[in-house]
Amino acid sequence: MKIHQILKEEYFINPSEGGAEEPFESNQLNGIVVSPRGIFQFGSWREIEEFETFMAVGSGQEFALGAMKTIYDSCDDPKLIAQKGIEASAEFDVSTELPLTIFQVELCPQGRKIKPTKGDQVRRTLVAA
Description:
- By secondary structure, the protein is of the alpha+beta class.
- It has one domain.
- It has helices spanning 2-11, 61-72, 78-92, and strands at residues 31-35, 38-42, 48-51, 103-107, 124-128.
- The strands form two sheets. The chain has a three-stranded antiparallel beta sheet, with no helix packed on it.
- The model is unreliable at 116-129 (pLDDT under 50).
């Protein structure tokens, strides 16, 4: 909650999203956190969702999600899946532009500590662009 107060006092965010009966103040932030533990999306009402396959956020997210869904079952390369999503978004959304930079994160096996133990063969990859 400290960051919300800082955003209001020092960066002058408007904590209202226009509704008269808002349960609490909005922080006006939406985004994705990519970590060795997975993909997490957070919203302005402080909601958090976890995704197991792929996710996109931003003005072109519908195009990116559609493109990634189209190739997800037939492609084993997470980097290519992310690339196709961003390319589709750039093609159809005026607010998305290329070039792109892709970062790849090795995910931990489920239920494990962040550092995999010797002999771990379960590996998943997460790509963020």
